[in-house]
Amino acid sequence: MKSRPISPKNQNSILLKLDKPRHFVWIKNDIPFSDKKDIMIGRGGIYQDHRYRFFEKYFDNPLCDLGQVNKNGGNPEWLKPKISIKEHLKYKFILSLQGNDVVSNLKWIMSSNSIAVMPKPTIETWFMEGTLKGGVHYIEIKEDYSDLEEQLNYYIKNPKECLEIIKNANEYSAVFQNKISEEYCSLRVLECYFNMT
User: Fold this and answer.
1) pTM higher than 0.90 for the full model?
2) What is the mean pLDDT of residues 161-190?
3) What b-and-e string marks burial along 85-103, b requiring 16 or more CB atoms within 10 Å of the CB?
């Protein structure tokens, strides 16, 4: 499978590194954290209720630059054009909300000098999102998003903690960028799977 729920009972959902071009994108030569804007950028399709609730709550918030990229559904007042990853990287904080399953932008955010802002993940892929820790690899917000302003204001005032999160996130994502070890692990997973089934 490409993704599975983070649960003690997911042992029958065997993960492989699938949909690589979309999910496993890495950032090289990013600008320093200190040169980025002190607000959170967020662009995405608003198809799910939880994303709708987030935009409803924070679209006009001065700490956020949010935009809906889909023309059908969501709210026409939230429409903004898509922007490139390079444009996202001008911001210190990048919204990373799950969609139909796993968050698709998390990998490239964690390889950059920006920080992912998200609730604790409930879905995982080959990237092992279930092992990530809030305040260590990303800025964790509550499931109801109620502490977003508090968290952003805290980290804006504490850049040293931000740099530590970026260091941890970069080190975590670097493991998945070694093509030889990644291919070896994938082959071993397949071998074990076929031997056991």
Assistant:
1) yes
2) 96
3) eeebbebbbbbbbbbeebb
